[in-house]
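Note to self: keep these together.
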Amino acid sequence: MINARRQSFRGVVGMLYVVGVNIAVFTTQFVLSELAVHLIWPRQNPWLRPPFEKRALRVADPVYGHKRVLFLGDSFTEGLGIPYEQTFVGRFAAAFPQLDVLNAVVSSYAPSVYYAKTKYFIGRGLQIDEIVVYIDVSDVQDEAIFYRFDESDHVQEGNFDERCRSPELLFRSAPWCARWSYTLELFYTRYFLRMISQESEGGIGSLSMGPASAYRRDGARASWTYDPNPACYGEMGVEGGIAKTLALLDRLFGLASKCNIPISVGVYPWPQQLLYDSEESRQVRVWREWCRGECRHFFDHFPAMFAYKREHASFLRDLFIWGDVHYNAFGYELIARDLIADYEKRQVRERNDTSFVHIRQAQ
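Structure:
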């Protein structure tokens, strides 16, 4: 009897020992993987991510003693995955220290939000002397199927076309474990993107599944500029999405005009425009035409990026985060150079025009 109990006890102890060793091995591997991720991608690890740069996030005083420029846009203008100082807005701010530059953008924003956010800022008494709106190629699809205004004129974001669901909205419902571990987040993200890609057949989920998928010709987010019938634009379609986007910029212009705030508009190409479109892309033509009657200035970065493409066969790897549609630090640097040069030319022209007016008045 005693021997049987001893053997049973030893069996339990042995089982617990094996379980404990397995847990220890798994925990060690998990911690090492998190540390390895931190060493390779320190800004992306949710456990060990360093704090925001002081210059990237700050509280702006409502009134500023000098000129203030407000940038509006989406993840490209935000500089997704790039330190603020290396984004084109951050470089612009460094080039013009006499200006107070505010980058009021977040990934997946669209013209509906540009208008609503500007209305909110003005209502709160924020000093704004100029607005620079960067219209992203994806804004047309966002307005066609993801954004609506309710009866109170409040912006609503949602999956208004169930056939084409928004990856951003689904990412926000990720399980808790994927929010606190980069390793688990990596596995969940790969599973999620594969699922979305299969569901949408390239309409939405082809943004981050590697180069072959991210740069495909029929990626609906960007292909509307050269394909009249892309997938996932709902009942509104491409033309309806363009018309709605233009109408929202008209609303933003009307709101800003009441406060004597000039608006400038900027555009830049996605990889698809560089691969399958031209410098005279429909994205350029639409917004250049709108700007003729409304804009203070039109910042067209298509020529600069196409010029780089003509001289460098490796332009995709040089300009973009490989396997993704967003620009890398060098790509943002090229946009910043173009923006800064155009802005300086505009300042010189405006000073000359002002001097000419003063001379005529004196005469």
